Amino acid sequence: MNERVRPARPHHKLTEDGRPMREVLSYSRRGSRFTPNQQAAWDAHHEAWWVPDDVVDRDDFDLTAWFGREAPLVVEIGCGIGESTAALAATRPGTNVLGIEVWVPGIADTLGKVGEAGLDNVRMIGVDAAWSMEHLFEPGSLAGVWTFFPDPWHKKKHNKRRLVNAAFAAVVASRLEVGAEWRLATDWADYAEQMVEVLDAEPLLEGGVTERWDERPLTRFERKGLDKGRDITDLCYRRV
To answer: Rounded to an integer, what distance in angstroms lies between the CA atom of residue 143 and that of residue 172?
Structure first.
């Protein structure tokens, strides 16, 4: 694996005396070793479709330049191995799709699926989603956001690490253009309840639980949840 690739987010806050500040993050660090197929996908596509962390950090970072065109932008938070990313991007050739995934082998998998599908409208970054939403996108600039099966942090003491909270919802809502959708799905009932509570309380959003989104493919991860007897909850909220 290319050692320049950092598998976790580089954006750490510092205390007033310059010491790293421990932050509550919505993900945990995972292994960064590549399988042979992931390595092959990485070697074939990362230079064109993956935006390095240090580039994202720059004050003059221009995401549009990485796509090479002006087009509506949809952000997927937590691509996993890219099953939904590739399937949904394939039906939206006129849309730029930015995938956010901190697990680098997952980025490699996603790049491989995008390449196999012959797509050129997907780019990937590996930095924190909350930071990215706040710093990379202008208010009203996103044509959609997808958040499928975020880490449920199912132990009660870890619930505070869940991605979908009031502060994050407020930022996402502000970045959506009027009428744009935030599509979510989870296989944890109590997380679904939390999502509804949080998103119903956000004044810029309206929506709720909906039927399964027929455009969202049945992924390997979703099948595991179903095999364990968990119900899948889809949600759709629109920017008002």
So the answer is: 11
| CA 186 to mean position of chain CA atoms | 14
Look-up: residue for tokens 């979703």?
A: 222
Residues annotated as catalytic (active site), given as ranges: 151
Encoded amino acid at 163, one letter: L
Of 111, 142, 125, nearest to 10 by C-alpha is 125
How many other CB atoms are found less than 10 A from the CB of residue 120? 15
Note the pLDDT of residue 30. 57
The pLDDT tens digits of the residues spanning 80-116 come to 999 999 999 999 999 999 999 999 999 999 999 999 9
In angstroms, rounded to a whole number, what is the distance separating the alpha carbons of residues 172 and 188?
Answer: 22
Least trusted range by pLDDT, from 151-160, 192-201, 219-228: 151-160
> For the CA atoms of 118, 119, 120, 126, what is the dihedral angle to 10 degrees?
-120
Q: For residue 140, give Cα distances in angstroms to 105, 126, 160, 199, 205.
A: 32, 23, 27, 17, 13
205-210: strand order across its sheet = 122-125, 96-100, 73-77, 142-148, 176-186, 233-239, 205-210
Query: What's at 39, amino acid-wise?
Result: Q
Other CB atoms within a 10 A radius of the CB of residue 93 amount to 10
Q: 3-state DSSP: the chain helix, strand, coil percent, rounded to 5?
A: 35, 20, 45
